[in-house]
């Protein structure tokens, strides 16, 4: 959302009226309350991307504002931390782990905060994330294998969050997963709608875990976390 220009004198439906050219504008108590409410709403909707540490005052990771036109819905803190900690546990199985995050910038950002030593690559359509430099790769799921050759079979861990709950989107994203995964022993995690459960199992042998992902925006669709490996007691285990 763009900020109002400095020359505007309206605040929603609130208008500031000047009594004369010399006196400052005067507001009633009702108008002041309305102005404060408007400014508070504006502060909440502005992206918090200028924090030097990348972490806000309440220790949550700062993210750019969701763009619903790109089907962007960030995970809530509990979901992001739970999945990130699972990835960090898997990383312990490798001397030099490489993690690919397909269309899941929330998880990439948390991973870089909680495991800054881990080598991770974000594959994302939204070029606002190019701020991550060499760890950002532009990704369009419509061209699932149009990726740099140096990324082919380069990752022991791949996390994917297809942007749309369609058969076509999931099929194309799984082609990207196959392109990136190092081998059949790679750990794969998929976050998508529950409606994709049967399709995910058929395409890559994914199983649903007991842990239920949630988004900050409280989406109506039920989301699930699928893995191609048995997490044991973690993530609520595999559902039978």
Structural features, described:
This protein has 240 residues and is of the alpha/beta class. It folds into 2 domains: 15-45; 68-236, Vaccinia Virus protein VP39 (Rossmann fold, 3-Layer(aba) Sandwich), CATH 3.40.50.150. The protein has helices at 29-45, 77-91, 105-114, 167-180, 197-204; strands at residues 10-11, 14-15, 98-102, 119-124, 136-138, 157-160, 187-193, 207-208, 223-227. It has a 7-stranded mixed beta sheet with strand order 5-4-3-6-7-9-8, with helices on both faces. Strands 1-2 form a two-stranded antiparallel ribbon. Helix 2 (77-91) crosses helix 3 and helix 4 (167-180) packs parallel to helix 5 (197-204). The longest helix has 17 residues, at 29-45. It is globular. The chain starts with 9 loop residues before the first strand and ends in a 13-residue tail after the last strand. The model is unreliable at 1-27 and 41-60 (pLDDT under 50).
């Amino acid at each position: 959302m763009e900020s109002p220009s400095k020359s505007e004198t309206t605040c929603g439906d609130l208008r500031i009226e000047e009594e004369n050219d010399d006196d400052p504008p005067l507001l009633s108590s009702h108008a002041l309350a309305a102005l404060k409410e408007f400014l508070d709403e504006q502060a909440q909707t502005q992206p918090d991307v200028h924090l030097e540490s990348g972490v806000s005052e309440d220790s949550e990771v700062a993210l750019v504002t969701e763009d619903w036109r790109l089907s962007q819905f960030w995970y809530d803190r509990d979901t992001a931390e739970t999945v990130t900690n699972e990835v960090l546990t898997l990383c312990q199985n490798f001397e030099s782990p490489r993690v690919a995050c397909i269309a899941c910038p929330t998880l990439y950002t948390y991973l870089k905060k909680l495991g800054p030593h881990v080598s991770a690559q974000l594959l994302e359509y939204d070029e606002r994330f190019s701020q991550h430099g060499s760890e950002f790769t532009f990704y369009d799921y419509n061209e699932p294998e149009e990726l740099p050759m140096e990324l082919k079979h380069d990752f022991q861990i791949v996390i994917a969050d297809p942007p749309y709950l369609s058969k076509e989107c999931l099929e194309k994203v799984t082609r990207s997963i196959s392109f990136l995964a190092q081998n059949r022993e790679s750990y794969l995690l998929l976050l998508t709608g529950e409606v994709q459960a049967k399709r995910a199992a058929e395409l890559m042998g994914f199983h649903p875990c007991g842990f239920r992902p949630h988004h900050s925006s409280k989406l109506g669709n039920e989301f699930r976390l699928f893995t191609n490996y048995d997490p044991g007691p973690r993530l609520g285990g595999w559902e039978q």
